[in-house]
Amino acid sequence: MAAPPPLPAPPPPEPSGGVVAPVAVVAPHFCAPYVVQLLVKERFSLREGDFTITDTNGAVVITVKGALISIHNRRLLLDAAGNPLLSLREKVISMHNTWEAYRGDSTRSSDLLFTAKKSSILQLFKTEMYIYLASNTSHEVCDFMMKGSFNERSCSFYLGNSNILIAKMHREHTATSMVLGTDCFSLTVFPNVDYVFIAALVVILQEIHTDKND
């Protein structure tokens, strides 16, 4: 008799005082009622900032395309069918590596969804990023926050300035990434949290880190 197939790995524990109401930034249907595990893989390409984001079965969920020639540093997030989800654009004049995210492939102010920026100019060992929704025009208190060490590729995402964890990421070492010198991240998005929004923050973090190294 053949041995039974191995049981799937248990999901990560939910955060203490976890999110109950959906955290929908891009769209409510990107908020799953369970833990979403994604793999963010940098593609070897002529364009900087090309990524493929897959689920645990290897199916493509999101692709990220960089711009070959652009005044602004731009990234476009597409769904599996090639439809634009988000347009990410770095502000040209910014002391805090500020990025803006717009709905679809728009860059109109009316389609702005959120702004992400480093909390301070000098960040030697730790990385901290504040995220503000478009409705939060004062930027006095952040709506989301990222803390961690991007040099070690280990970061956590929180709801507001709190200890409510909504997602985590860490670096994966694969044969392909080591040979090509590309990055690969494992991303855990907790229930009721917009996984496209979190994926976009990982892309922005990678771009901020690349800019710092350059």
UniProtKB/TrEMBL annotation:
Give the superkingdom in one word.
Eukaryota
Q: Which Pfam families match?
A: LOR (PF04525)
Annotated family: Belongs to the LOR family.
Which SUPFAM superfamilies is this protein grouped with?
Answer: Tubby C-terminal domain-like (SSF54518)
List the coiled-coil residues: none
Record's InterPro entries?
LOR (IPR007612), LOR_sf (IPR038595), Tubby-like_C (IPR025659)
The name of this protein is: Protein LURP-one-related 15
UniProt xrefs under Gene3D superfamilies? LURP1-related (2.40.160.200)
